[in-house]
Write a structure and sequence with these properties.
By secondary structure, the chain is mainly α. The protein contains 15 helices and no strands. α4 crosses α10 and α13 runs antiparallel to α14.
Length: 444
């Protein structure tokens, strides 16, 4: 990509395939495949000039003294190209379609085989006025709103409150849905972790993190690590696109921040060729995520002992990898060790800021996990997954319904007894009065 020359009346023709412009980085210029007439693409040329001048400026993404020409691809070498990231969006759509098929063909039969049971919830009767209000306002109605809805629907306050409680419970995700979601993530994280570990265990930077920076930024990327990056970014795009239909958990906002920070971190670190340290970051995250999802699966299936065992293993792996390995080895390497090979620049501060955001999220989740471990040690069981298994709104509605129904039954029985008692008292009074009236003439 080349920008329009300043001061010339007509733009210069674009370079032929394989010829890199001096003003644009080879990472971008290598994306040009066919020459085209610039007179028909003046807006594209202006956009290319802005990208080259502001976004892909060498001072932003390369250490001082290094230019884009210094990392041009040679024969038999592969370097990250920003255009590769465009494949992640179609890949995200493929993940969504594959997940749809997986959940219905594999996850649902597996849930039945493991004994996953869904709660039987009372469906709210169709009331158009209340249904319209519910779709516009997800929060429960206030007292003034209940009075207004009562005038519109002709229902009493108690009936309206019961209807909204049943309607909210009706929209709560079933255990089967949560099991399918957890099983999909378990399969991906497990496959990603095993394949990444197999491709990284023989690399020198897996054991010595100084090798992540030796020779930077002219570091060729292996084909396996290239696809590891593209696949991980496509998967996180799919998670971000499906966040509105997935189970909404109590760490919903933290999950959004995590997905966005992860996508930015993967994409920009790929463009700046932080691939070596980036693969280690993703490997650390995948090492504990599949254990969490497996614990969720057995929790929904009611396998308490298996769930508790997996949760304890997950807690140990999470605390070691996220609170010891990640800050002590990876973040320390990017903050301190990297300065032995180059001077700090904008990309150095930007990527380390994103890593620190992830570390803050790790501390937040670690606090939830430690609270869960405390419950496990002193209560003897893991009731709920404190990290992200619990929904954003606690499921107390069903118990309230049972208490309300039992109270209604007790109140009905009590009313019937009181009514029969009152009837007996009235009958006795009438009988006594008649007896007294019958006795009065005789006494006279």
């Amino acid at each position: 990509m080349t920008a329009k020359r300043r001061g010339s009346a007509t733009p210069t023709p674009r370079p032929n395939r394989g010829v890199a412009s001096q003003s644009a980085p080879p990472l971008l210029s290598s994306a040009v495949k066919t020459p085209c007439f610039p007179s028909h693409h003046s807006s594209e040329y202006r956009m290319d000039g802005l990208l080259d001048q502001w976004l892909w400026k060498e001072d932003y993404w390369l250490p001082p003294g290094v230019t884009w020409k210094d990392i041009e691809m040679g024969e038999g070498e592969r370097y990250p190209l920003p255009r590769d990231l465009f494949y992640t969006l179609p890949l995200a759509l493929c993940f969504i379609a594959l997940r749809y098929v997986f959940e219905r063909v594999i996850a649902v039969p597996l849930s039945r085989h493991l004994g996953v049971r869904d709660r039987v919830r009372i469906r709210a009767p169709p009331v158009p006025k209340l249904e319209t209000f519910y779709k516009l306002n997800k929060q429960p109605p206030s007292q003034s709103e209940i009075l207004g809805l009562g005038k519109l629907s002709g229902l009493g306050q108690r009936q309206i409150e019961t209807w909204f409680r049943h309607r909210r419970n009706q929209d709560r995700p079933s255990n089967t849905k949560k099991f399918c979601e957890a099983s999909w993530r378990f399969v991906f994280y497990l496959i990603a972790f095993v394949t990444a570990l197999a491709s990284l265990i023989d690399t020198p930077w897996f054991w010595d993190h100084r090798e992540c920076w030796r020779g930077y930024p002219k570091q060729p990327v292996a084909e396996a690590h290239h696809w590891y990056y593209i696949t991980e970014m496509g998967f996180y795009w799919s998670l971000l696109l499906c966040v509105s239909v997935d189970v909404k958990r109590k760490d919903f906002n933290e999950q959004i921040i995590h997905h966005i920070a992860t996508i930015f971190l993967i994409g920009l670190s790929y463009c700046a060729n932080y691939v070596r340290i980036g693969t280690l970051v993703m490997l650390v995250h995948d090492s504990s995520d599949f254990l969490l999802e497996s614990a969720k699966m057995f929790n929904y299936a009611g396998w308490r002992k298996t769930c508790d065992t997996l949760f304890v293993i997950f807690a140990l792996v999470f605390l070691v990898t996220r609170l010891v390995v990640f800050p002590g080895r990876i973040v320390y390497s990017t903050l301190v060790v990297s300065m032995d090979f180059f001077q700090p620049f904008f990309g150095y501060y930007f990527f380390n800021a994103l890593l620190l955001v992830l570390q803050a999220l790790h501390i937040f989740w670690a606090w939830l996990i430690l609270r869960m471990v405390y419950k496990f040690v002193f209560l003897g069981k893991v009731e709920k997954d404190e990290r992200s298994d619990e929904e954003s709104e606690p499921e107390e509605e069903e118990e309230v319904e049972e208490e309300d129904s039992s109270w209604e039954q007790r109140k009905g029985a009590l009313n019937s007894k009181l009514a029969s008692l009152a009837n007996n008292c009235v009958l006795n009074n009438l009988t006594n009065q008649r007896n007294m009236n019958s006795r009065q003439p005789k006494a006279r």
